[in-house]
Amino acid sequence: MRAPAKINVYLGVGKVRDDGFHPLETVYQAVSLYDDVTVTSAEEWSVTTMVGGPHVDHLAIPDDATNIAIRAGKALAAHHGIDRAASIEVNKNIPVAGGMAGGSADAAATLVALDRLWALETPDEDLLAIAAELGSDVPFALVGGTATGTGRGEIVTPLEDNGSWWWVVIFNEEGLSTPSVYGAYDLLEEGDHDYRIRPEMLDALRSPQPSGLDVFLYNDLETAAFYLRPDLERTAEAALECGAIMTLLSGSGPTMLAFANDAEDARLIASRLGGRGYERTAVVHGPVAGAHVVAYQ
Ligand code: C5P
């Protein structure tokens, strides 16, 4: 199975809820950076991670039952009341703790892979419910494309999206923990604000030209992430100087995104960024499909 990284082209965050999560209104987009997950029936649960991309820190990934791929497999088995295990191999390209939902992609891919391997034929709504229990971003990794996310991000509604959007992903050496960014957001945020998706943004997404979208690209967590990691603001400035139409924090960061006109522009921006010392970049496009089968043996 192959599952995509996600970005949030819009991320509006409300005041923290009683359960510790924040209400969100977000527009997700699945982009062409993938983790591949292979599952094989086994006596015991295990997970092995191979580094597929240069921007992945191998050491940061747990290889025990705390790994979200194993938690996904166990949750699926428990849902069906079956006592089975599998060995899970993850070929990682999505950065760890990067704000691109790499762990969520692995969980989504594992759910669909084991559902196929064990011929469980789990209804989609059950898979989505199991995914939501695993993490706020996991349902979107199943759905892919472009979609709104509400609730804490787990309620996913696909959007009509006719365009193809090009981005330069600027990786960061060091991960940033999602709870710490939300914590900083709580400290810095003053009063209520309207964090809802504006209808004009959905209109811009429906247009085949990406030209309207740059007006709406926005992430409520950016101030908090810049507060914790001032280097990110400099990265954004550098990307603008290298020709980005706009920059955006990816999810809770620290990955930064540069929005480009087209593929050629994106490659040019990436190459200029390389000349300025930002060598760890990738040119991606979206929307792409959610978790899907790529090989079966
Ligand atoms: O759902 P997930 O496991 O990805 O969330 C990780 C952490 O991120 C949560 O424990 C919480 O601190 C924070 N979070 C949040 N509001 C959300 C999603 C995540 O505060 N909507």
From TrEMBL:
SUPFAM superfamilies found in the cross-reference section: GHMP Kinase, C-terminal domain, Ribosomal protein S5 domain 2-like
Amino acids binding ATP: 95-105
Broadest EC class assigned to this enzyme: transferase
Reaction catalysis annotation: 4-CDP-2-C-methyl-D-erythritol + ATP = 4-CDP-2-C-methyl-D-erythritol 2-phosphate + ADP + H(+)
Domain GHMP kinase N-terminal: 67-145
Database matches in Pfam families: GHMP_kinases_C (PF08544), GHMP_kinases_N (PF00288)
Protein name (record): 4-diphosphocytidyl-2-C-methyl-D-erythritol kinase
Record organism: Nocardioides humilatus
Gene label: ispE
